Amino acid sequence: MDQFIYLDYQATTPCDPRVVETMLPYFTDYFANSHSDHSFGQRANQAVETAREQVASLLGVLAQEIIFTSGATEANNIAIQGAVKYRLKQNHTARQVITVCTEHKSVLEVVNALAEWGIDVVTLPVNREGLVDHEALKEALQTPTLLVSIMAANNETSIIQPVNELAKIAHEYGAIFHCDMAQIIGKIDHLSLENIDLASLSGHKIYAPKGVGVLYVRRKPRVRLSPLFYGGYQERGIRSGTLPVPLIVGMGKACEIMCQEGKEEAQCLIYYKKLLIDGLKHNIVNIKINGSIKKSLPGSVNLHFPGVQALDILNRIPHLCLSTGSACTVSSLMPSYVLLAMGLSKEEALQSFRLSFGRMTTQAQVREVIDALSCAYHDIMAGR
């Protein structure tokens, strides 16, 4: 893999070697069920609780508010379905849920499925920068609403929504606020969950293993959820099932590293992003950035190459690991629904792709990416 340059950190990250090292003993030496009463099991349980503290520390919340899941998709499902189901059981009169057209599919699909329960779904638009209009949210909230779900940072454009402000608005109208935070955790140093009721995280976005995630559930004022499935009452009965101790330990270690190194890492990624954009703009004068630059993640950018299909560029640079859109969509031949929602034409969307740096990226790689993308673009435009 040495000849490849990985530029798809929004899709997934490699496990940090320190995370892997911390996990290994829990596969072989300390493998007991963390809910067993014997001392062997309690050692595993202590490792889980340490990880819970590490996650909570990164988020600035209480350890008791952390529920371990298999990933952000499951956390999104538990949060949205669980909150709505509980409120309906309490005979809440509202029958509306609000989300945004650029959400991850694991939010959009589950929200749309709520129609089977008689729930009306309102999907808010975004502007050309990918941002939600506060007034549009207020207008939608004029109808009694059970829950609002808006992601913190988009998985294709990296656009950051002012979720705490949006959450305040939702609370003014009595709605619960859920936030998909899979893309943003550890990437900015001023993140706050002050007004967030429910938040979803994914381990493999922060250099932890795949197969583990977190659902944050606010305790004061308390948010209650109905479980989606039942079992042994693990994780306060919200997410039953034997805990994958090694994966949870890895998640905790990854959060600990983010706490210690995240701010410095973000500054490095900001530098790489500026280096990339400046270099490409110098070489390709008509290149465009999709969405807001100021209100986006440090190491991610969505690029539009006018006049050239994104797949044609990518086919010329197979050593660069890039994506035209979300890794969770079915076909890369389809234009991104996120870019279309932001007002791009189908043609413009098909001429765009995302690029994301991460912990293992080097400055030399960024400069090579600039050269490779520039050469590929100009060769195609010249018919070579």
Features:
384 residues; alpha/beta; 2 domains; seven-stranded mixed beta sheet; three-stranded antiparallel beta sheet; PyrdxlP-dep_Trfase_major; pyridoxal phosphate; metal ion binding; Cysteine desulfurase
SSE layout:
Blueprint: E1 5-6, H1 17-23, H2 25-28, H3 39-59, E2 66-69, H4 72-89, E3 96-100, H5 105-113, E4 120-124, H6 134-140, E5 147-149, H7 163-172, E6 176-180, E7 198-202, E8 213-217, H8 245-283, E9 288-289, E10 300-304, H9 310-316, E11 320-321, H10 337-341, H11 346-350, E12 352-356, H12 363-381
Parallel strand pairs: 1-11, 3-4, 3-5, 5-6, 6-7
Antiparallel strand pairs: 2-8, 7-8, 9-10, 10-12
Describe this structure in words.
The chain contains twelve helices and twelve strands. It has 384 residues and is an alpha/beta fold. The protein folds into two domains: 5-12 and 261-381, Aspartate Aminotransferase, domain 1; 17-256, Type I PLP-dependent aspartate aminotransferase-like (Major domain) (Aspartate Aminotransferase, domain 2, 3-Layer(aba) Sandwich). The strands form three sheets. A seven-stranded mixed sheet has the order 2-8-7-6-5-3-4, with helices on both faces. Helix 7 (163-172) links the parallel strand 5 (147-149) and strand 6 (176-180). Helix 3 (39-59) packs parallel to helix 8 (245-283) and helix 8 crosses helix 12. The radius of gyration is 21 Å and the shape is globular.
